[in-house]
Design goal:
The complex is a heterodimer of chains A (about 475) and B (about 475).
Chain A lengths: L1 H13 L4 E17 L2 E19 L2 E7 L4 H18 L16 E5 L11 H16 L6 E17 L4 E19 L2 E7 L6 E3 L4 H5 L2 H14 L4 E2 L3 E7 L1 H13 L4 H4 L29 E4 L22 E6 L2 E2 L21 E2 L8 E2 L4 E3 L8 H6 L3 E13 L5 E13 L2 E7 L2 E5 H6 L1 E4 L6 E10 L4 E9 L2 E8 L6
Parallel strand pairs in A: 4-6, 9-19, 10-17
Antiparallel strand pairs in A: 1-2, 1-5, 2-3, 5-6, 6-7, 6-8, 10-24, 11-12, 11-16, 12-13, 14-15, 17-18, 18-19, 18-20, 20-24, 21-24, 22-23
Chain B lengths: L3 H14 L4 E17 L2 E19 L2 E7 L4 H16 L13 H5 E3 L6 E3 L9 H4 L3 H17 L3 E17 L4 E16 L4 E8 L7 H14 L9 E7 L1 H8 L8 H5 L20 E3 L21 E5 L2 E2 L6 H9 L29 E3 L8 H6 L3 E15 L4 E14 L2 E5 L3 E6 H6 L1 E4 L3 E3 L7 E3 L2 E11 L3
Parallel strand pairs in B: 9-14
Antiparallel strand pairs in B: 1-2, 1-6, 2-3, 4-5, 6-7, 7-8, 9-21, 10-11, 10-13, 11-12, 14-15, 15-16, 15-17, 17-21, 18-21, 19-20
Helix pairs in contact in B: 5-6
The chains are: A alpha+beta (about 475), B alpha+beta (about 475).
Chain lengths: ~475, ~475
């Protein structure tokens, strides 16, 4: 693939680009679903193409093509430069890139079993076994399962001399059981809602998830929710399970720390951020217990935000985002690093595919676990009166990332340190910084899970990206519960 | 752009490679370009060309699909092999139908299944001027938008995009259909220190877009909503501009599907034929409407019918793919499902969602009002430009949450009194569409929370805002 990149880089230089990089990408995916005992969809997809990102006259241009012949590649490079010159018609200042030592590297997602080597028959058998377990429970009216594998091989070459070959692999699986009765639809999902658990791993993830083993319990909970009381409304201490807390981190920490949002680049679509530049190292984001990192390194775990190098050739890094409650860092790129006084990118630029422009994306934005041993059961035992909320059902947050509201699939009222009763339709809402400052307990490492969010949307044209979020169950004091259902 | 003749030649090559009983090939793709601006400068500017071919192989009642964007012999051989390998290991699906031929796809039985109803032709949606938009034309458009921002001492962000796209289908029973269209789109946010305004519009025909007018409206919204005050959450009369209506009503159309009824995941389960909304709500799905876009055929090549979903508040029917209709006819739910027949709204097979109406048109009312008239008749209310992050809180009452954004105003004594801090809503769509006091003439509208529709502005009483945010 080097020759393809060189064709493009040569033309970009000849046309006057001061910088250019080329990504040649081959993506492969497999998606299998079942619904009520039948295969719902079964598809394989491959997409191959290349793109050129160029700076000319101090402005950006980007062009992409599925054609990899010399003529098409050179035309694409020329087009990127032409577009950059058009961009320069409406610019205030030249693009500035933070210096980066050009990397020459190979990197592959560590994995034990390539998921594409597993026979499809075996995949389908697994999903139908789960489906049967779910529908064995009387009252289940709809059972859905899914299994997804993705492989992305990328060759990144820049005019500065970077030459990186990287292969990323991800696996995802999950299921949901629905119970419709009377005027109500209740739902339970496992291991998480909206596609289950996803990680940058091979097929070994599937065995670790214990999918079949949990199906009966999940289906029974979906049915039992119909007889559960409505979650009470008012201010309560709440405990979030780790998957819900992962999404809470995503929405109320991960997005507001994206420096492109902060700088107004996403104002028309995803929005801006309350984390204006003056808040860096001055804002008490959360209580002293809150330590959040943006960590793309393999040693953080196999998250969907784990890689060797980002899509502008910057090595994976760990950036402290919240340190003992103090806001300490943004997600940055080579173009934006200087705005926060940094001389190097935080390495967070990623693209959905060969035909999309890399942009600042969350890596693995994780809340570090508590240092003292604390299990979920111990946390519940230390709570006088509250609500435990599990598994996201709805999520919404304003375009500056202040006011949020989350609904969960199931709740448990806690009284005198014990789970007292199941409650349905639990929801909670609040203001981001008030919420994180109310955190007073985090479970320890053995309760910590690195969740994958495979469906994070951002950008125009919109790009969908996988992100990682490590979290352990945590307690928040005096949170507004049930406002969604207050008439 | 890939032509129908080139696609036909690719289909012939695929057909020769295939050993399946039946084979279907879908084509999609085209040219896409987008110029993105923020802080009064172009900061992203992209263009791509890509075509995807997807092959569905069927062996008896087993089927599967594979995709590729490479059309060389080896890639086509591989995509056929993938589709066939996947299909062969499927369990037989008793509901899978043979692929439709041209006659079955173009003439659909009516609700009784007795007399065929030919579908109407769609107007041309391909405009040469839109297809010919260059980066320079987009940059000059952005420059004018930035000029408006600077005139009002504002900062602007947004996009100016252009698309030339195709959708095509060929199957081994001789069905062939092909659709090309263009689309130009402008979206503009104007930002002041503590306020913002927004407008977005698109059209297949560049000549019908007026970026300067959109920029001026967005700028005035930002200026007029400056220094927003906080008013308490509660139930208000709201005037929802068309984009805000689109943002919120879009969430219910996944439920107007025969498959959603069979799955008992639709809020219409057991409610078809009942009056759910106000007398003034009539909703069609109509791909032929002059303000609509899109291909006139579905994922199996069946022609899209014009379907009355809601008439005078009564839910009349849902849409069906071919196989869903056959399943429903055998289902215990058939007597509560309304008219049952394929309507040309199916997704490409195989899929688990079935079908969905995607060309929504709200019918005009005889006593339509302008937004200005709605404001003039409002004693105390809130004018909403746009909604954001709409999500379903409760699926059967269709309780939705979300927030207002980019131009939220307090209305008192028939006049706009200035900007207010944004609200969080928690509102049932059934409740909302039962409380519509006035509507404007429906217009083509687009937003970020749903697909494009032809919708009116609405004045709605007792709309439930539960919280206020910080800006």
């Amino acid at each position: 693939m080097k020759h393809i990149s060189n064709w493009a880089l040569n033309i970009a230089a000849l046309r006057g680009a001061s910088y250019a990089d080329v990504r040649v990408v081959a993506q492969r995916s497999r998606s299998l679903t079942t619904k009520n005992g039948k295969v719902g969809s079964a598809s394989d997809a491959e997409s191959v193409g290349m793109s050129v990102r160029a700076i000319a006259d101090g402005a950006w241009g980007f062009a992409a093509s599925a054609e990899l012949g010399r003529g098409a590649v050179e035309a694409t490079a020329a087009r990127a430069v032409e577009i950059a010159r058009a961009s320069a018609r409406v610019k205030r200042e030249d693009v500035r890139l933070a210096a980066e030592k050009p990397a020459v590297a190979e990197w592959t997602t560590p994995h034990k079993i390539d998921p594409f080597t597993i026979p499809v028959e075996k995949n389908i058998e697994l999903l139908l076994n789960i489906d049967a377990e779910l529908r064995f429970v009387a009252g289940i009216t709809l059972a859905e399962t899914n299994l997804n594998f993705n492989r992305e091989e990328q060759w990144f070459v820049s005019s500065e001399g970077a030459d990186i070959h990287q292969t990323k692999l991800s696996t995802g699986a999950g299921y949901a059981a629905y119970a419709f009765a009377g005027n109500e639809i209740q739902k339970r999902s496992y291991p998480n809602s909206y596609g289950g658990q996803w990680q940058n791993k091979g097929y070994e993830l599937i065995d670790e998830l214990k999918l079949v083993e949990n199906a009966g319990r999940i289906a029974e909970e979906a049915v039992a929710l119909h007889k559960a009381d409505q979650c009470p409304e008012g201010k309560f201490d709440i405990i979030l399970d780790s998957s819900q807390l992962g999404l809470q981190i995503h929405e109320s920490v991960g997005h507001p720390i994206e420096l492109d949002r902060v700088l107004g680049m996403e104002a028309n679509f995803a929005g801006t951020s309350f984390l204006t530049l003056d808040k860096l190292r001055t804002l008490r984001y959360g209580s002293d217990l809150v330590n959040v990192v943006a960590d793309a390194r393999q040693e953080h775990g196999p998250g969907l935000g784990t890689f060797g190098y980002d899509d502008e050739g910057v090595a994976a890094q760990c950036t402290p985002i919240i340190t003992n409650g103090l806001f300490t860092g943004y997600l940055s790129s080579r173009e934006t690093a200087h705005t926060i006084g940094e001389n190097r990118s935080g390495g967070t630029l990623r693209a959905e595919g060969w035909n999309r422009l890399p942009m600042i994306r969350m890596t693995n934005i994780s809340l570090l676990p508590g240092e003292k041993p604390l299990s979920l059961e111990q946390l519940i035992a230390s709570t006088d009166h509250g609500v435990l909320l599990q598994t996201n059902r709805s999520w919404s947050i304003d375009d500056k990332r202040y006011n949020f509201q989350f609904g969960c699939e199931i709740g448990w009222e806690i009284k005198n340190g014990k789970r007292a009763r199941m409650v349905k339709n639990p929801s909670y809402s609040g203001i981001t910084t008030e919420f994180w400052n109310s955190l007073d307990a985090i479970c320890s490492r053995d309760e910590w899970t690195l969740w994958g969010t495979p469906n994070c949307g951002k950008g125009q044209p919109q790009q969908v990206m996988g992100t990682g979020h490590g979290a352990a169950p945590s307690r928040f004091r005096g949170v507004k519960v049930g406002a969604a259902f207050k008439s | 752009m890939l032509t129908k003749e080139q696609a036909s030649e690719i289909f012939d090559r695929i057909k020769k490679l295939s050993t399946a009983d039946e084979v279907e090939v879908l084509f999609s793709g085209g040219h896409f370009a987008l110029t993105r601006f923020a802080n009064n400068t172009i900061h992203q500017n992209v263009a791509e060309e890509n075509y995807v071919v997807s092959v569905r192989a069927a062996f008896g009642r087993r089927t599967a699909r594979a995709f590729t964007n490479k059309f060389d012999d080896e890639s086509l051989r591989q995509v056929v092999r993938s589709a066939e390998s996947l299909a062969k290991v499927q369990h037989p699906d008793p509901d899978l139908l043979p692929m439709p031929d041209s006659r079955e796809a173009s003439v659909i039985p009516d609700r009784t299944g007795e007399s065929p109803v030919p579908t109407r032709a769609v107007p041309s949606r391909h405009f040469a001027a839109t297809a010919a938009i260059t980066p320079e034309i987009r940059a000059d458009g952005v420059k004018k938008i930035v000029g408006v921002a600077e005139k009002h001492k504002l900062t602007t962000a947004g996009v100016f995009s252009s698309t030339e796209s195709l959708e095509g289908i060929f199957n081994s029973r001789g069905l062939t259909d092909w659709h090309t269209q263009t689309l130009a789109e402008v979206s503009i946010t104007m930002l002041a220190a503590d306020s913002s305004g927004w407008q977005k519009a698109n059209s297949p025909d560049l000549a019908k877009l007026d970026p300067l007018r959109l920029a001026e409206i967005a700028a005035l919204k930002a200026v007029d909503s400056a220094r927003p005050r906080e008013i308490p959450a509660g139930k208000y009369t709201v005037i929802l501009e068309p984009a805000a209506v689109l943002d919120i009503v879009g969430f219910m159309f996944w439920d107007y599907s025969g498959m959603a009824i069979l799955d008992q995941r639709s809020f219409l389960t057991g409610r078809i034929g009942t009056k759910l909304f106000g007398d003034n709500i009539t909703i069609w799905d109509d791909v032929t409407h002059p303000l609509q876009t899109g291909a006139p055929f579905d994922g199996e090549g069946v022609q899209r019918q014009r379907v009355a979903l809601v008439e005078n508040g009564i839910v009349k029917r849902v849409v069906y793919a071919r196989a869903t209709a056959e399943r429903m006819k055998r289902s215990e739910q058939r007597d509560k499902a309304g008219p049952i027949a394929a309507t040309g709204h199916g997704f490409a097979l195989p899929n688990e969602m079935g079908e969905m109406p995607q060309n929504i048109v709200f019918a005009p009312v005889g006593d339509s009002q302008t937004i200005e008239q709605m404001i003039a008749s409002t004693e105390r209310g809130v004018l909403v430009t746009r909604l954001w992050y709409i999500r379903e809180v409760e699926p059967f009452e269709k309780m939705l949450t979300g927030v207002t954004r980019d131009g939220t105003f307090y209305v008192e004594n028939g006049r706009v009194q200035g900007g207010v801090r944004n609200f969080r809503l928690n509102e049932s769509l059934i409740h909302m569409l039962s409380n519509v006091e006035a509507m404007s003439v429906p217009v083509r509208s687009c937003g970020e929370e749903s697909f494009d529709m032809v919708v009116p502005a609405m004045k709605v009483k007792d709309f439930n805002f539960t919280e206020v945010t910080k800006f």
